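ok so i was messing around last nite and threw this chain in just to see what happens. nothing serious, just curious
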Amino acid sequence: MTDATAPTPRTAAPAVAPRVKVAMILFAAFALFPLLAFALDDPFLIVIGTRILAYAIAAMALDLILGYGAMVSFGHAAYLGFGTYAVAILSSYGVTDIFAQTLFAVAISAVFAFVTGAISLRTKGVYFIMITLAFGQMAFFFFISLSAYGGDDGYGLSGRSTVLGSNMLENDTTLYYATLVALIALFVLCHRIVASRFGRVLTGIRENPTRMESIGFPPFRYQLTAFVISGCITAVAGVLLANQAQFVSPAFMSWHRSGELIVMVVLGGIGTLSGAIGGAVAALLLEEVLGMMTEHWRLWFGIFLVLMVLFSPRGLTGLFEQIRGRRE
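result:
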């Protein structure tokens, strides 16, 4: 089949540029955030900011398959765990370079995503959700069984990863900006994937897999590739989270964490990479603010999420576009 048979998202083109602009605004705000922390004389804000950026990477990776491939993975936090434990395991053997740790995490995630994705994609709908949950829980309990790395109690890291022999990441601000650079680079990668022929095919499969298969695009192959890419990107977020917390635990890969990632994507707007980043920011800031106000913050967070889904089904992105449309 020629490229002429592939669905071309001409109608979606006008919406792409504003969303990229939103991402650029978010990145600019992230770049200036440490200045706010210094102005308030509260260095802990930088630690919180690094955590937000790392989860933004994970949410964006999940949105790549959830929003563009209609694959609702309820075990995606497993790849966060692979990233965190890659740091812990290699560090225990004296390998502290972050590039080596990231490469190891990505390799393990790619293998796990390929095997589990190949099985999971044989199913559809709720069965896909449940089988990804099952695989995620298998990984969760596997790391609980690793008594050498703390089991259920977790494992404390002696220090952060090195960069070509340098300990520059020991500085919180440097780690923050390193995480921001990773987020920007991975956003560019994901945006190029979505805008490419591969991304258009993936979107077409989301809309009508039968038709896409009939014109020569096998859904399984494209969905599995996207599934593996998403898992690898999430593993990078895990490496950064391990360095931020200097602690690893199976809790990073529990099904609750997978649910939180889905909430971030839904809150920001499914099928919008910038929305996933904004959803991660909104969810984690709400968690921090409501947590300071009441121990029952999950109740209020749930109410906020229900109201958002009812009045803005497309999340914060839809709300932003409504406001922008009214002004125009």
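not much to say yet. The first strand starts at residue 155 and ends at 156.
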